Amino acid sequence: MAQTSAExxxxxxxxxxxxxxxxxxxPFGGYNLPVxxxxxxxxxxxxxxxxxxxxxxxxxxxxxxxxxxxxxxAEADHAxxxxxxxxxxxxxxxxxxxxxxxxxLLLNETGGVIDDLMVARTTTPGTLYIVVNAGTKEGDxxxxxxxxxxxxxxxxxxxxxxxxxxxxxxxxxxxxxxPGVVELGFMQFGTFEWSGETLTIARAGYTxxxxxxxxxxAATAPTLWAAxxxxxxxxxxxxxxxxxxxxxxxxxxYGHDLxxxxxxxxxxxxxxxxxxxxxxxxxxxxxxxxxxxxxxPARKRVGLIVEGAPAREGAEILDExxxxxxxxxxxxxxxxxxxxxxxGFVPPTHTAIGTKLAVSVRGRAQSAEVVAxxxxxxxxxxxxx
Amino acid sequence: MTTKFTPDHExxxxxxxxxxxxxxxxxxxxxxxxxxxxxxxxxxxxxxxDEAAVxxxxxxxxxxxxxxxxxxxxxxxxxxxxxxxxxxxxxxxGWIYKIAIADAGELDGxxxxxxxxxxxx
Lengths: 385, 121
Description:
- Chain A is an alpha+beta fold.
- Chain A has nine helices and 19 strands.
- The longest helix of chain A is centred in the N-terminal third of the chain and has 12 residues, at 74-85.
- Chain A starts with 14 loop residues before the first helix and ends in a 14-residue tail after the last strand.
- Chain B has a single domain, classed as CATH 2.40.50.100.
- Chain B: Pfam families: GCV_H.
- Chain B: This is Glycine cleavage system H protein.
């Protein structure tokens, strides 16, 4: 097994807390992070679905993109900064209101996904808050900085800490410390004072549950981590349960379910290609993506329930006759369902809910069925506004 | 009754001409929550080192190798419904299969209690 030596790995500002809590540290995205704590993945997963799980996601890439010379006119400055980022991505950023977050895709010229990311409009005119994935952040940041030229400056915030508090009790826990967060709806964010520091808090996450992602300085992170954990509704949760939670929520994982060959339409992320952008056809790979949207893609991402042993990434998907028609891109055991689930790509002829398929696990065909995703319903807190 | 161990963290408890095979407590702790066990079929003939079973945790699949050569005589069917027995009690209720030992001499090549304790300390 390939091993990255410990010296090559970065640590997050919460490394000592993980070790003290008995976290089993593993290399992930260039960082040394806990895959689980002593209670184990199953317990951590269920706790997050029932109470609130606290995750260290400081390996991710939070950043701010700001106009170098804002005019002070909020709308004009927002239009100017949106015009810098939009040529790289699929989303309508110009239409964002202050405090609104959009899930969007960084695309290459052939319509493949370079990364999936969050872009949000801050209340500072001409400034965006952008969070990209850990494994892709160097390339993403270089790409964004190049597009910005001297018109805007990209400031990385990945030297701080990003904490995720996820689960039905997350809002109760966080609002006891910071009452203002109850005002946020799903995919909204703001800045909040806590313990002498300004925290950037987004009501978003990667578990399918209501919850928050909190950006803090490295210095404040251990105090914030401890304060959240002092609430009996909160337990620390590692990367193992983070993966099983996002899989149940049907959320793709970059580098597994998405890569530079996958188009948004194939990945069933057509919603991330905003209407205005579609009509203008002004994003990278527009010709392929719009053609696939019109005529259908060659393959499409589906959810599968698998009988028996979990089908892992790379397992072949077979049709009823036993012919190989696709591949599993993420798969594992769903603790909330007590069965194996998977995401994978198959031809559009085999994507209807209820289609009987099979997956090949250790050379044996096991029954599988196409099901709707999310596998476990999302429970986001949406505000009607 | 003797129990021997492999460097891959299988144990074999020798009961006369039969060995009871499973994974050690150390192994179950390292793997975490076991969610599926793929059992061998009764009658399967195994050579020492052959893949005999697979245990799956939430994260990954791990192969279980035959500590000695022989024929599978019995499997722990309870694991089909309750794979977590491997975590709860790996050496008793969480055993995986029984094997008719073909060559008792192969046991001598395995680790004893002290040797295994040394490996995992």
